[in-house]
Write a structure and sequence with these properties.
The chain is about 25% helix and about 25% strand. It is of the alpha+beta class and about 325 residues long.
């Protein structure tokens, strides 16, 4: 689909790439200087909801830049313009509720790299969209790199066709541990009570089961969550039949508080994991924030992460069905 919308003009940003004919991210700017306020933006989004969503699917990432988006309130109005259903975050990242549908992004130390992932990839229902807003850009670093997931599958199939097909057939089993209470000194420091919104272990087990997890209680009051089997790749409607690398194998394999194995208990070849990590980095698009940016990511099609940065930095997030 060609770009055609009177309410936006196409721009460019540092780090953008052309991937199989699609610009990632597609940068949309105000059509005129007097149309850069948040109210005009919300009105334009309401007028072009279906077209805008088609752009997200087509380009996998859409960046709104140059609009005067000043706060979490403005960001929330942008999200609500579409009428998309909210989906509550479930995962290890420590986050704080800010306003209505808006939360902080991972509050773990800015000095640490958050590895590439599809949001909530381990949960039975993952959000279709991850939307991020930059209130305070970092003085250095802090990029939110993202990766066209189908390109990882294509390249892994070129180099390891038998291993990919074997893993996809058997599936993956994951595990991770969480403390009882939050620990914001860690990128994976969200406690199980906050994750499952309850301090009752029985209720936590019930809610975990609904998400496709089994819980094992630890002597220190924490919990080990076991998930699987999960597929290595997936194909989603409307995305050209592309086989997405829809897993978190590299991010959890052999880590201190997590693991990833074949569903039959077999270890995943280290060479396979290492090469996948290299390919993901090679295919990455290094997106650098500017103040007021709003970035829409197709969570079915993109892995995303976070580069280390100097403070201060404030990025807010919401996830939608």
């Amino acid at each position: 689909m060609e770009f055609a919308c009177k309410d936006f003009k196409v721009g460019k940003c540092e780090g953008e790439k052309l991937v199989h004919g699609e610009t990632m991210p597609l940068v949309l700017q105000p059509p005129a200087a007097e149309k850069n306020d948040a109210d005009s933006l919300v009105a334009a989004l309401k007028e072009n909801k279906e077209w805008f969503e088609e752009m997200i699917i087509k380009n996998s990432a859409v960046l709104l830049r140059g609009f005067d988006v000043k706060s979490a309130v403005d960001f929330n109005e942008i999200i609500e313009a579409f009428g998309w259903d909210d989906i509550r975050y479930v995962g290890p990242a420590p986050r704080t509720h800010v306003y209505k549908r808006v939360w902080t992004a991972n509050e773990g130390p800015l000095s640490e790299f958050i590895y590439y992932h599809h949001e909530m990839v381990l949960i039975t229902e993952s959000p279709k969209k991850v939307i991020l807003y930059c209130e305070i850009p970092p003085p250095e670093g802090g990029e939110t790199p993202f990766v066209p997931s189908f390109r990882v599958t294509e390249r892994m199939l070129e180099e390891f066709p038998d291993v990919v097909e074997d893993l996809d057939k058997k599936g993956l089993m994951y595990s991770f541990t969480a403390l009882s209470k939050n620990d914001t000194s860690s990128m994976r420091g969200r406690g199980w009570e906050d994750t499952f919104a309850t301090s009752d272990p029985k209720e936590a087990e019930k809610r975990a089961s609904a998400l496709g997890m089994d819980l094992e209680w630890l002597p220190n009051g924490g919990v080990k969550a076991v998930l699987g089997p999960r597929s290595l790749t997936r194909v989603f409607d409307g995305r050209k039949g592309r086989r997405m690398w829809f897993n978190t194998m590299v991010g959890m394999h052999g880590k201190e508080h997590s693991s990833a194995k074949m569903a039959d208990g077999t270890e995943i070849p280290t060479k396979f994991v290492k090469r996948c990590e290299e390919i993901i980095e090679e295919e990455s698009i290094q997106f650098k924030w500017q103040k007021g940016d709003v970035l829409f990511l197709d969570n079915m099609a993109l892995l995303h992460g976070r580069r280390p940065s100097l403070p201060p930095k404030k990025v807010l997030v919401t996830t939608c069905k």
